[in-house]
Design a protein that fits this description.
The protein is α/β, with parallel strands linked by helices. It has 18 helices and 25 strands. Helix 11 links the parallel strand 8 and strand 9. It binds alpha-D-galactopyranose and zinc ion.
């Protein structure tokens, strides 16, 4: 298969998108302000805005009474001024008339109680009335604006999320389950192990959602409820997409995802979308981590969303130009940080830098949320100047648009597994930290200049040489075989404690963990996973890293000993090289870390929790085996790379406030035109974007 390294998302826009959410419907009685906005947008280098996200009552102030003239005027004016439109469907918030007439559109809480009218994102995805009204307004929008020359993308609803426990959802859930289990209640009982505590069901209509005061002990039920909510939300979203496509088949669609959002499986939800977009709100300058870590965590999210649809750019649909207003502490980004965060998005594969919001509202809950244009209404604020400077930088990076990430390393991250790890009664409730474990391993690879994608166990793994799958507790069907052939074909695969314990229904594997015969691949059986108290410590002693036992150490990467926290496993090693053993406690002398060569590749197993920095030597060895060059980057410097058909774009971001010296950098900086051959000094909060042939 020929891989293409160029995928232009928006042919109408020459370069990267710079824009954001814009709510002119809040200012229709102030044409002077709308005119001023146009002028300021142009000054800030904004070439696209997102309209109509929460405009339902402006479009349809009473049922069946439509007003689209204002939108027509604004889209026209924007387009005349070189500004494109992303048009949203307004289903993210409902007008009062709708809830008054159709109370079933309102969501029910985890006790099954119907909510009152208000807020947003609180609709029942099963409500026939709601679906009918959404279809109607979406069709109207598609008919009227689907051919507007300024329209580049549909933005479906807004930040889908949450559960509804109403009767309609209960019935839909039962139907969904009947389909999943071939209408055979016996099959469901077996899969959910309902003989435990006499929870056997006679028929699907006895099954309820996991109400807060209802069935909480059947883990299979809780898991299927989450899968159902993803399915139902996706089905709702698909109905919106269908309504648009009927009149407007060619304009692509997206919906905006949220940071590490837990309640929806984005891998499943992404299928009907053309482009992935997400809303990035890192907690800059907080008091619990370094700025470098905040940046890296944000980059992990970029990587997660980028990897959902490989081979094409993604979108940073929202970010705050200044501050947000919904956190316990709402701190401004320090000078320079805004632009750097925007460059980070592009570095990680985004073709857009978009904000919430273009102009600040005067009232209601977001009136003090950062915006490009604030209440002062001028272009001489610090935030405006930084946005405008960002706009100029993005113009210089126009040719980067359409280039893609092309990585050989990956971290496995599954929503199902996330849910399963969270729900299982095992380990330490506070120290499970599945997400943190994935993030910290990802960061470690990034620090070695080998940025991983974040992929699901069901993804296509064929472009990767190194895959790390921390805490892969649940194995989807066939994943054991997939791992085996990955390793056999030369892959380096890393598993950790708490791997391969249950199948997709949460039934434990019999005959030894990791299941699906992976214990043979790793050459060990995990007999028990011991949970330590947060203050407990053990030590492992590293013995060797095979052919090059001291090479890592010489570079200070490979320690002699590492500290163990939270988890230590009792491993029964039958057929693997032992790389480290426990020093203390009843496990002293027993294997803790192993490796087994299999086919052309290697299966690595880390049976205890050690700091990701302590694993650097091991990760370096994996990279070396895979022929991926590892490099040393100074603290605080992030490296990301994109490629097109003919060249690479190497991004070096200095996330520290002090200058940083980097080595082995080559190419022409698109931001300044300067040439680099070898060394460079990057000032604090600045970046290099080197085009390399
Ligand atoms: C979310 C929403 C926006 C806005 C911002 C504020 O991302 O999608 O409508 O509320 O948060 O940060
Ligand atoms: Zn419902």
């Amino acid at each position: 298969m020929k891989v293409s390294y160029k995928k232009i998302l928006f042919p109408g826009i020459n370069g990267l998108v710079h824009g954001g959410d814009y709510n002119p419907d809040q200012w229709l009685d102030r044409p002077d302000i709308l005119e001023k906005d146009l002028e300021l947008m142009k000054k800030a280098g904004i070439n696209c805005v997102t309209l109509g996200i929460f405009s339902w009552s402006a479009y349809e102030p009473a049922e069946g009474e439509f007003h689209f003239e204002w939108l027509q005027n604004i889209m026209d004016r924007l387009y005349e001024n070189g500004i494109h439109t992303i048009l949203a469907t307004p289903s993210g918030a409902r007008p009062a008339w709708l809830d008054a007439a159709y109370p079933d559109a309102m969501r029910a809480d985890e006790y099954g109680r119907r909510n009152h009218h208000g807020n947003r994102h609180n609709h029942c995805m099963s409500s026939e009335n709601y679906r009918r009204l959404v279809r109607k307004i979406d069709s109207q929008l598609a008919q009227r604006f689907g051919k507007h020359p300024g329209l580049i993308l549909w933005h479906i609803s807004n930040e889908f999320g949450g559960y509804c426990y109403c009767d309609a959802c209960r019935q839909r859930f039962q139907k969904y389950l009947a389909e999943q289990f071939d209408g055979d209640i016996g099959k469901l009982n077996k899969a959910w192990w309902t003989s435990f505590w006499s929870h056997t069901y006679n028929s699907f209509d006895q099954i309820e959602p996991p109400y807060a005061d209802g069935e909480q002990s059947v883990l299979g039920l809780r898991l299927e409820w989450k899968r159902f909510t993803t399915w139902n939300t996706t089905d709702f979203m698909k109905a919106e997409i269908d309504a648009l496509r009927e009149f407007c088949p060619d304009v692509p669609v997206t919906t905006n995802f949220m940071t590490m959002y837990e309640e929806l499986d984005y891998h499943a939800m992404a299928k009907p979308l053309d482009v992935i977009s997400w809303d990035s709100y890192p907690m800059f300058h907080n008091d619990r981590e370094t700025l470098e870590d905040t940046f890296l965590e944000n980059a992990f999210n970029h990587a997660l969303f980028r990897s959902i649809k490989p081979g094409q750019p993604f979108m940073m649909m929202e970010s705050a130009p200044g501050l947000v207003n919904w956190r316990p502490f709402n701190k401004y980004k320090r000078p320079g940080v805004h632009r750097l965060a925007c460059l980070q998005a592009v570095a990680c594969g985004s073709d857009t830098v978009q904000y919430f919001q273009i102009r600040k509202s005067r009232g209601s809950v977001e009136q003090f949320h950062g915006a490009v244009i604030d209440h002062l209404g001028t272009d001489d604020t610090r935030v405006f100047r930084e946005v405008a400077e960002t706009g100029r930088s993005l113009e210089r990076l126009a040719e980067v648009a359409g280039s893609i990430a092309d990585n050989r390393t990956a971290i496995l991250f599954d929503w199902d597994n996330r849910w399963a790890v969270r729900d299982v009664n095992a380990l330490g409730q506070e120290t499970k930290k599945y997400e943190e474990t994935c993030i910290s391993l990802w960061k470690e690879f990034v620090k070695m200049g080998a940025e991983p994608d974040i992929i699901s166990s069901d993804a296509d793994w064929s472009s990767y040489r190194v895959i790390a799958a921390p805490m892969l507790f649940m194995l989807h069907d066939g994943v054991g075989e997939k791992i085996r052939s990955f390793v056999e074909g030369g892959g380096q695969f890393l598993a950790t404690y708490f791997t391969g314990c249950v199948d997709r229904n949460l039934l434990a594997y019999l005959g030894g963990f990791p299941g699906q015969d992976l214990h043979e691949l790793f050459g060990l059986i995990c007999e028990e996973t011991d949970t330590l108290y947060p203050s407990d410590r053990n030590i492992i002693r590293w013995l060797t890293l095979g052919d090059s036992p001291r090479e890592g150490k010489a570079e200070g990467l490979f320690p002699l000993q590492s500290e163990v926290r939270d988890y230590q496993e009792l491993l029964r090693v039958s057929d693997a090289e032992i790389l480290a053993v426990y020093e203390k406690d009843y496990v002293a002398g027993m294997p803790a870390v192993t490796r087994k060569r299999y086919g052309q590749g290697t299966a690595w197993y880390v049976g205890c929790r050690i700091g990701s920095g302590e694993m650097r030597g091991l990760l370096a060895e994996m990279l070396k085996n895979a022929g991926i060059p590892a490099r040393r980057l100074p603290e605080g410097v992030e490296f990301h790379s994109r490629r097109s058909e003919s060249c690479y774009y190497d991004f070096y971001l200095n996330t520290g406030s002090e200058p940083a010296q980097v080595e082995d950098v080559y190419g022409t900086d698109l931001l300044t035109g300067e040439e680099f051959r070898g060394e460079a000094v990057i000032p604090g909060f600045q970046a290099l974007v080197l085009k390399r042939g």
